[in-house]
Amino acid sequence: MAKLLIMLGAGGHASVLMDMLKRLGLELHAVVSPDRIPSTSLLSGITRIETDELLVNHYSPDQVVLVNGVGSMPGHDVQKKLFLSYSELGYCFLNVVSPQALVSEHVKLGMGVQIMAGAIVQTGAKIGNNSIINSGAIVEHDCIIGSHNHVAPGATLSGGVVTGSSVHIGTGANVIQNITIGDSAIIGAGTTLVKNVGAGQRVIPSAMRFLS
Fold first, then answer.
1. Cα–Cα distance measured from residue 13 to residue 157, given in angstroms and rounded to the nearest whole number
2. 3-state class (DSSP) for residue 5
3. CATH architecture entry for 4-94
4. Could you give the residue range(s) of every CATH 2.160.10.10 domain in the chain?
5. Total-model pTM
6. 3-state percent breakdown (helix, strand, coil) of the chain, nearest 5
């Protein structure tokens, strides 16, 4: 028997994922949201589970596969916490890859990876658990992307870039080849990154300033 598919969250990111699931021919069984879902949402009409506790009490890890529909923003770790807490309970997360993305057959994906429309992921790349490669982003050959990363729309990572855990690479950022970015670093929107970044550092475009 096929497992039921349940979405965590019902905001904008969840709606984009719902659109992708439809294109992939996958049916969503329910969505976890404490708030009522607007009638204009793609998630409208789907069974709503009001709390995480209700999901855990009514659906075992053997019955369901989860989709992490919470968006990822720098300084906010709700998406990561949800993934870790459910994983510790034995739940698995679905990889959602848009049919409009270009992903090499020679790419390794962790669990719960999301690759959005227009993204390109080239041969030899590795994408860690619960990471998002957002719309139109490019991850070139042999990049190693850590867990809980967000490569925001339009960002470009040249070949051989390595990132740690919980890294945010902002919209339209450009990272040259063979750069290393440490855990929890934030690369601001529009940055052109030409040198390594340490753990916890923030880089903004103006004069390539590094902030603690």
1. 22
2. strand
3. 3-Layer(aba) Sandwich (3.40)
4. 97-198
5. 0.94
6. 15, 30, 55
pLDDT digits (tens, 9 = 90+) for 65-123: 999 999 988 878 999 999 999 999 999 999 999 999 999 999 999 999 999 999 999 99
C-alpha angle 91-96-98 in degrees, rounded to nearest 5: 175
CATH 3.40.50.20 range(s) for the chain read: 4-94
Residue type (1 letter), 80: K
Q: Which residues are catalytic?
A: 141
CA separation for the pair 180, 174 (Å, rounded): 13
90 is in an annotated binding site: no
Q: Are 147 and 130 in contact (CB under 8 A)?
A: yes
Decide yes or no: CATH 3.30.930.10 for domain 97-198.
no
Instruction: Record the tokens describing residue 191, joined without a space.
Output: 């940055």
CA distance 3 to 6: 10
The C-alpha atoms of residue 170 and residue 149 are separated, in whole angstroms, by 11
Q: How many CA atoms lie within 13 A of 60 on its CB side?
A: 2
Taking only the tens place, the pLDDT of each residue in 43-72 is: 999 999 999 999 999 999 999 999 999 998
**What tokens were used for 86?**
């459910």
User: Known binder of ligand: residue 106?
Assistant: no
